[in-house]
From TrEMBL, chains A, B:
CDD domains: HTH_ARSR
Protein name: ArsR family transcriptional regulator
Matching PANTHER family: TRANSCRIPTIONAL REGULATOR, TRANSCRIPTIONAL REGULATOR, MARR FAMILY
Recorded coiled-coil stretches: none
Protein's organism: Paenibacillus dendrobii
Length: 110, 110
DNA sequence: TCATCCCTTTACTTTTAAGTAAGTGCATTA
DNA sequence: TAATGCACTTACTTAAAAGTAAAGGGATGA
């Protein structure tokens, strides 16, 4: 499982690597959401960054983008079937991250 | 396990987030290594970046730094006990990343 | 007629990360 | 005397990521 010269950990980190992508993924794991919903749920994200990161995730096949041709337009973002393969990974990462945050909080002077 | 407002996935990505940290972790999972070993094993890393990322990982408690007061100096970097908690996480991330790379290779025009 | 809503895109600026090159210290070897 | 090896650090430059502000398009409601 472990080779010397390649490090696929980088791949995952690259896919989820932007400043906002983890949060977007997290919210879409919960349920599909519209652009505006995400904008409201992610404090301080700019429309540009949200749009850009959603397009990145779409390009990787992780997120599906469904456009309903209504007026005003409605666009729904959801995890693709492939994107759902990230859920267990995200959960493991989440668990470690939560523990790490707790650890930092408990012993800030180490 | 899933909360609305926090996303600990970000924590992990932040800890492993630099350009070289995943590779460093990967190599240290395999075995402890010296500065020069890492430099040779990671193509194109500069001493500055290697040093900086090692210090980051040390600060997070993931990597132990052992100095042997010999001349020339010998410094060994190894995974700390805490750092070893990252191994299963890295393996899950690695597995997903490998699959993702394969997928990309198989259908580059999706 | 004018503003409104939603989902963007574009042009420009600022911030952050990474790269480059050189230098440090000290003991051993040539 | 000078060069070598190891493990860095510092100062400076460049590249990448993110932030800001504004505009667009097209139907609907006031």
């Amino acid at each position: 499982m472990i080779h010397q010269r390649e490090c696929p950990v980088e791949t995952l980190i690259h896919v989820l690597g932007g400043k906002w992508k983890p949060m977007i993924l997290w919210l879409l794991i919960e349920s599909s959401k519209r652009f505006n919903d995400l904008e409201k749920l992610i404090p301080d994200v700019s429309q540009k960054m949200l749009s850009q990161h959603l397009r990145d995730l779409e390009r990787e096949g992780i997120v599906d983008r469904t456009v309903y041709p209504t007026v005003p337009p409605k666009v729904e973002y959801s995890l693709s079937e492939y994107g759902k393969t990230l859920i267990p990974v995200a959960e493991v990462m989440c668990a470690w991250g939560e523990n790490h945050n707790k650890r930092k909080y408990e012993e800030p002077a180490s």
